[in-house]
């Protein structure tokens, strides 16, 4: 749309309104597929750092999978931007320019930014941050060596890598968020649900030191077990319900969303402790299925805040109730010991987790503001 504005006798030049390329559902699925490679490489590398004590080099097969996944995402995004630029050139000029001319003609004035698919602007920033952090990580390892355990999760360069991955892999989620229409089905919302699951799994990856599924404090006989366990439950509940309520605020989700999200995350986290398989996976799957059932019954939405509050309370309560049931069954088999927490601790843990979810619902969906009535003037 062209416009011409006169201001104080000065004629301003005509400016064409720029439109950004819209991301398609097909491209979202492609990005999700290549993201599996990248996130899978991250968890494989996490397994190596957790289970191979003699790991003393940056150049490993696990890093090769990890960084090749990054290249796959980066190349996919760049190819899509170039395709959009070429399509725009054809629509305006009628002929397709060469790759060199295409880049040369669109660099001035940052016109190429308009070819970034909607929702993927931060993804492009993410791959740039990851690339810089990757070079920094190589330098860090040369100077300080290979980190161990929790150190690897708190290294500044690794946190830079995490930021880059998070921005990049959440692209399909942002694209779906900004796309209007569509049905609440797996076909339409699948990329958004997978992208949200990847982002959630990235958060739990870098907070694995506080994961109740990986470190079952209720059956570990130490003096600080209850305090540490309750703290871990509160942190992971906040991360979980933050992601759940974010999706809840935007979409009517298809059945199975939470079983998939929790279940896949629980399976991925097992790489840090294979012994936790029978704790992590059953608890996550059953907790997610319970959330799906409650979601179907309550049908929480923005216009029914009470149902949102109840849902946000019940999901953590059910999850950690199932967690303690699971521990009571498999604890004596796998860990040679049952739950050692006192009744107030193991009975109160699900309740305080539920309260955390309940309070977060007010942050994600605050109460409606009541308009103040103006005083009528006195006649």
Textual characterization of the structure:
The protein starts with a strand and ends in a 15-residue tail after the last helix. It is globular and about 75 Å long. Mean pLDDT is 83; it is low at 1-18. The strands form 2 sheets. The protein has a two-stranded antiparallel ribbon. It has a two-stranded antiparallel ribbon with strand order 2-3. It has helices at residues 25-51, 61-93, 99-106, 121-144, 150-154, 156-169, 171-177, 186-205, 225-250, 257-269, 277-298, 305-334, 343-364; strands at 2-3, 6-7, 10-11, 15-16. The chain has 2 domains: 12-181; 207-367, no CATH class. Helix 1 (25-51) packs antiparallel against helix 7 (171-177). It is 66% helix and 2% strand.
Which terms would index this structure?
single chain; 379 residues; mainly alpha; two-stranded antiparallel sheet; 66% helix; globular
Question: What can be said about this structure in brief?
Answer:
The protein has 379 residues and is an all-alpha fold. It is built from 13 helices and four strands.
Secondary structure: elements and pairs:
Blueprint: E1 2-3, E2 6-7, E3 10-11, E4 15-16, H1 25-51, H2 61-93, H3 99-106, H4 121-144, H5 150-154, H6 156-169, H7 171-177, H8 186-205, H9 225-250, H10 257-269, H11 277-298, H12 305-334, H13 343-364
Antiparallel strand pairs: 1-4, 2-3
Distance between the termini: 52 Å
Helical fraction equals 55-70%
Unreliably modeled segments: 1-18
Strand order, main sheet: write it out.
1-4
Gyration radius from CA atoms, angstroms: 25 Å
Number of strands: 4
**Tally of individual domains:** 2
Which class of secondary structure composition applies to the elements? mainly alpha
- The helix tally amounts to 13
Beta-strand content estimate = under 5%
SSE order, as H and E?
A: EEEEHHHHHHHHHHHHH
Q: Average pLDDT, to the nearest integer? A: 83
**Inertia-based shape:** globular
Biggest sheet record: 2 strands, antiparallel
């Amino acid at each position: 749309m062209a416009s011409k504005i006169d201001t104080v006798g000065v004629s301003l030049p005509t400016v064409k309104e720029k439109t950004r390329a819209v991301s398609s559902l097909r491209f979202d699925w492609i990005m999700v597929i290549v993201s599996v490679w990248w996130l899978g490489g991250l968890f494989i590398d996490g397994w190596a750092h957790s289970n191979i004590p003699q790991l003393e080099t940056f150049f490993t097969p696990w890093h090769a999978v990890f960084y090749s996944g990054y290249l796959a995402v980066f190349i996919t995004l760049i190819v899509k931007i170039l395709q959009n630029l070429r399509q725009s050139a054809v629509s305006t000029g009628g002929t397709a320019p060469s790759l060199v001319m295409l880049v040369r003609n669109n660099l001035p004035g940052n016109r190429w930014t308009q070819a970034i698919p909607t929702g993927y602007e931060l993804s492009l920033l993410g791959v740039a941050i990851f690339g810089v952090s990757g070079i920094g990580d190589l330098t860090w390892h040369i100077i300080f060596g290979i980190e161990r355990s929790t150190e690897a999760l708190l290294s500044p360069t690794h946190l830079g890598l995490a930021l880059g991955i998070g921005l990049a892999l959440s692209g399909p989620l942002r694209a779906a968020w900004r796309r209007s229409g569509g049905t609440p089905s797996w076909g339409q919302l699948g990329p958004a649900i997978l992208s949200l699951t990847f982002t959630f799994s990235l958060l739990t990856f870098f907070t694995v030191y506080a994961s109740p599924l990986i470190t079952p404090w209720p059956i570990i006989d130490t003096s600080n077990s209850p305090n540490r366990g309750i703290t871990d439950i509160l942190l992971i509940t906040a991360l979980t319900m933050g992601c759940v309520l974010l999706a809840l605020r935007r979409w009517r989700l298809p059945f199975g969303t939470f079983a998939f999200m929790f279940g896949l995350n629980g399976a991925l986290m097992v790489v840090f402790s294979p012994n936790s398989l029978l704790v992590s996976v059953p608890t996550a799957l059953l907790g997610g299925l319970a959330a799906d059932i409650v979601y179907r019954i309550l049908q929480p939405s923005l216009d029914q805040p009470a149902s949102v509050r109840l849902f946000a309370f019940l999901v953590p309560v059910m999850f950690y109730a199932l967690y303690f049931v699971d521990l009571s069954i498999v604890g004596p088999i796998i860990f040679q010991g049952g739950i050692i927490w006192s009744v107030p601790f193991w009975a109160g843990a699900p309740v305080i987790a539920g309260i955390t979810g309940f309070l977060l619902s007010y942050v994600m969906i605050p109460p409606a503001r009541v308009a103040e009535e103006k005083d009528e003037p006195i006649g």
